[in-house]
Amino acid sequence: MKKHVTSSVALGLVVTSFMVSANEPIETIKPVKEINLAQVELGKKLYFDPRLSKSGFISCNSCHNLSMGGTDNLKTSIGHNWQQGPINAPTVLNSSLNLAQFWDGRAADLKAQAGGPIANPGEMASSHTLAIDVIQSIPQYVREFKQVFGHDKVSIDEVTQAIAEFEKTLVTPNSPFDQWLMGDKDAITEYELSGYALFKNSGCVACHNGEAVGGNSFQKMGVVEAYQAKGNAEGLSAVTGKDADRFKFKVPTLRNVELTYPYFHDGEAESLTEAVDLMGRLQLGRKFSEDETARIVAFLKTLTGDQPNFQLPQLPPSTDATPKPQPFDS
Amino acid sequence: MKKHVTSSVALGLVVTSFMVSANEPIETIKPVKEINLAQVELGKKLYFDPRLSKSGFISCNSCHNLSMGGTDNLKTSIGHNWQQGPINAPTVLNSSLNLAQFWDGRAADLKAQAGGPIANPGEMASSHTLAIDVIQSIPQYVREFKQVFGHDKVSIDEVTQAIAEFEKTLVTPNSPFDQWLMGDKDAITEYELSGYALFKNSGCVACHNGEAVGGNSFQKMGVVEAYQAKGNAEGLSAVTGKDADRFKFKVPTLRNVELTYPYFHDGEAESLTEAVDLMGRLQLGRKFSEDETARIVAFLKTLTGDQPNFQLPQLPPSTDATPKPQPFDS
Ligand code: HEC
Ligand code: HEC
Ligand code: HEC
Ligand code: HEC
Ligand SMILES: [Ca+2]
Ligand SMILES: [Ca+2]
Q1: The pLDDT value given to residue B19
Q2: pLDDT given for residue B31 in this prediction
Q3: Which atom, in ligand 2's list, is nearest to the CA of A265?
Q4: Residue of B174, B160, B172 lying closest to B309 (CA atoms)
């Protein structure tokens, strides 16, 4: 059976690479277009700047570390004053492809999202006013905002716009699987391909499909069998108020899933093996053999694409007028 | 008087640029040599890797942020579990030029230093055994250690060696002042030059001299007048046991001092203006006018050199065998 699937997929390749791609439920990641490069450079600095937090210690990159797949690789995050967060931090990689932001979709897009963590007392614990005061006390920032936005006013609107524009560049094309989709049949092994066949034929692609292999719908966690979650995230119903939306979460992207452990909204699945096994049982009522699970895991690892590739940004120094960080409440 | 000094310095330039440099108490930063590039690349990853900490959240770069002058810009650092550190984190930039490491010099060199924070319960709160277990569970690291060191054994010795080799690359040449030293008389302004003259003629160069403009001796903090320090760091005497060494600290480098606020071992001086004013009074018994202090500060800002300039490193992912981070004591 596995052999059969593999070779029928391989047959597809004979036609043309475009055909293969067009027939598959997963699409290659398209290059980003219409990007404002000046905003990106500014947004990159802000993304790495811990002065947007009350303590002066926590930046976006603390929890969405771009050296580690855009996550913190913790079950739940560490916020201001070492507070334990309520939910697993999703990757920012390819987050521009999501239909909405956050597990429950409560932010419409990246710009709407970016203001949240700055003022969240459990995350960066600053306020928009304070963050703007900090930025406005730093002439190099003020100059750059002026160059980028063409006016003197720095408000949270420009800050979130620049961060969102930077995040749009965080797509990860050229994964082995994408190369395979584009017609390079040697880009992944027969073994990995057999995992893809299982992924496709078992029904995983019903929810994990498209460019991001997820990110484009909200689905119940625990369709066939209930999931015993840790924490008390209720999912989409928190946004819609509808009882039918209880425990529906945004289907996470499986792009770079090799890097974004631990898994699920509560971070309780430590390994991909565990996550795949659970998905099979809870979402599809299917118990994979160890061998099948291993093949699917091998396939999922072919979804790791080009990671962010830029110079470590250099932040403009504070001045005597810059509000001081307040790391310790005294 | 200021005019006079300025023009005599300018006269020096007429001879040859080498002559000028040779006559000055401050030397240009020499390019690094005899660097093992493979060790550097490995050390860079380790430097950015929060998995060397118990929580999985704190890396060397958390406290010595290479986007911010190699410091955290906090009075005292935030360590594991948000513990408040006892002393200000010095920059790692140009730290290879120091006669010894730490404010009290208790580590002979960068290699001897690098093991400290990993196992320090107030900083990264891991242990050498745990850190090595983490590394050894990650095949990409194991392979890289083998390539770099030529043998299979990964021990704390190779870890600290690689980190130290990376740190040796963190020198900051080409500051405006170094360009001036090399003969480009337009590299700094007359005003900045007058600050240098004051710095030289008032006696600051007695302690702040050489390649790092400091870092090459231990000196009493509060020579003429006592310093009312916060915290209870006792300085060199903690290492030598000699009473005469009480309150002697390693003279900090003034390279990139514009970026390494706040100042002094307790981080109590928030601005360069404050630090220069205090240095004048406590070390030299001299009260600078506001104008003089401003000129010295302007000079000190010409010591900001080329900042670290490399791609954000990508860390190899953990595996199922990797010991899990323990951010929260439960
Ligand atoms: C203290 C940790 C922490 C910090 C700091 C932090 N985040 Fe997050 N981030 C999270 C967590 C946790 C979530 C998930 C919250 C939820 O879904 O309810 C999240 C969600 C997101 C998402 C949504 C991704 C998705 O697929 O839904 C984006 C985008 C994002 N953060 C970007 C940022 C940016 C930009 C910053 C800085 C301005 C930032 N984050 C700061 C922890 C953090
Ligand atoms: C009915 C929709 C649905 C189906 C079918 C489905 N998933 Fe999921 N998947 C989800 C949702 C929703 C989540 C997030 C659940 C949560 O975090 O609570 C998820 C999470 C995951 C994760 C964890 C990703 C992360 O970053 O946390 C993996 C891996 C995964 N799915 C793989 C699979 C595989 C393999 C299959 C097929 C065996 C599958 N999924 C089938 C909806 C689905
Ligand atoms: C929690 C904060 C923190 C972390 C994490 C940390 N450091 Fe430090 N570092 C400090 C502090 C504070 C000092 C000064 C301690 C002293 O002098 O007693 C210091 C001193 C140093 C020095 C001496 C510099 C000098 O001029 O004397 C070097 C070099 C250094 N650290 C490198 C590292 C490396 C490498 C790592 C990671 C393996 C690291 N640090 C992790 C806070 C930290
Ligand atoms: C007798 C030796 C000595 C003299 C003279 C001296 N310094 Fe210092 N300087 C030190 C020491 C020691 C420290 C560190 C003290 C501490 O942190 O407690 C220091 C610290 C500094 C700092 C803070 C650096 C940092 O990163 O924290 C600045 C700025 C500075 N000196 C500038 C000056 C200037 C300007 C003069 C002349 C007016 C001067 N110094 C004269 C020994 C000296
Ligand atoms: Ca995750
Ligand atoms: Ca400092």
Answers
A1: 41
A2: 86
A3: 17
A4: B172
Q: Phi, psi at residue A79, to the nearest 5°?
A: -110, -170
Tell me if B82 and A84 make a contact (CB, 8 A cut-off). Answer: no
Closest partner residue to A72 (CB to CB) among B48, B57, B65 is: B57
Q: What is the DSSP string of B132-172?
A: HHHHHT-HHHHHHHHHHHSSS---HHHHHHHHHHHHHT---
Mark whether A123 is an active-site residue: yes
Q: Is the pLDDT of residue B7 over 80?
A: no
Torsion on CA atoms A240, A242, A244, A246, rounded to nearest 10: 60
Q: Is the pLDDT of residue A6 over 70?
A: no
- What distance in Å separates the CA atoms of residue B193 and residue B7, rounded to the nearest whole number? 10
Same fold, A2-30+173-303 and A37-168: yes
ipTM tops the 0.90 cut: yes
Contact B84 A328 (CB under 8 A): yes
Q: Which residues contact B86 (CB under 8 A, 6 or more apart)?
A: B76, B122, B231, B232, B233
State percent of chain A over pLDDT 90: 90
CATH of the domain spanning B37-168, picked from 3.30.450.20, 3.40.50.2000, 1.10.760.10, 1.20.1250.20: 1.10.760.10
